[in-house]
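Entry 14. Structure prediction run on the chain below.
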Amino acid sequence: EHLAFLGLRKLDDLIGRPEFLRQREVPGHPKANLIDLGRLLRDVAKGSKRGLSRIRLQDRNDGLHAAPLDDKIIQDARNSVRDKEPIKLSYKVKNTHRNVGTKLSGVVADHHGNNGLPDGTIDIALEGSAGQSFGTFLCGGIRLTLTGEANDYVGKGMCGGEIILKAPANRKFAPQDNSIAGNTVMYGSTGGKLFANGRAGERFCVRNSGGTAVVEGIGDHGCEYMTNGLVVILGGTGKNFGAGMSGGLAFVLDLDERFEKLYNPEMVQITRFEDAEDENAVKQLIYQHLEYTESERAREILGDWERFRGRFWKVAPKAGLSEVKAAADPVKADAK
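Output returned:
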């Protein structure tokens, strides 16, 4: 109807036709009316000696048909996958590389089942800015160490393996004050570990059902609908923390003394360290975080533990709070 009113038959006839546009006046907004949009409304194709096309100057679908990085990784690691032999690999990564580690995990699971390989069998170092869903559905035996940053959905649905996010050594910023991962990290994970040398976005560990994570700050809705797992946050959180959380444990380092106003008390309650078991589990994870990421924040905390230990909050479901205990794997005592 609108096209017919303009005397056109199809949308392609409308593209690149500025004569159908006019700059309108905004009542009560004199500053906006001073803007001259004349150059934007020029018909640049009309009278052009080059005969400019009004639509689709060239075919564009960048990267859609490019082979995923995992194809290269699978080729390089094929003997390791087959024979369970340890291997170390390294690659550059960019934000068009999506789902790094996912296809590899499928190949590993196809050969060895859901448990995957022994820890750290395929040790992959990456550098750059990873695309969406880095380490999605990661399985046991794969370690992804990314020096740089990642986007949303890191570790989504992971059931094993390790994801390590590190800030570059030549950085000119404080990692604990800057984001290293996007939103919805470890969404629906059932296992595996993540260590992030920086902050993550909103809905960190939403619906976490068994994964372990250490991060240096998060946004709103952390640990939402969490049913199992262990999360250690070495920095601030956003609002609504623990909403719908029915299982697992979280430990939050409350440096600015705001957490009591930020968590959602409907299903969880907060306490300080209740016993040595909780404290040792958190401390060991921080040691492991330091070992993997060389985190300045982890080093500071461990170097003055008596000062920092009283700033942690333990977050646990109200039902059976006293029965829920933290558990973490032992780490090397000589961590960096």
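The first strand starts at residue 87 and ends at 93.
Filed with the rest of this week's runs.
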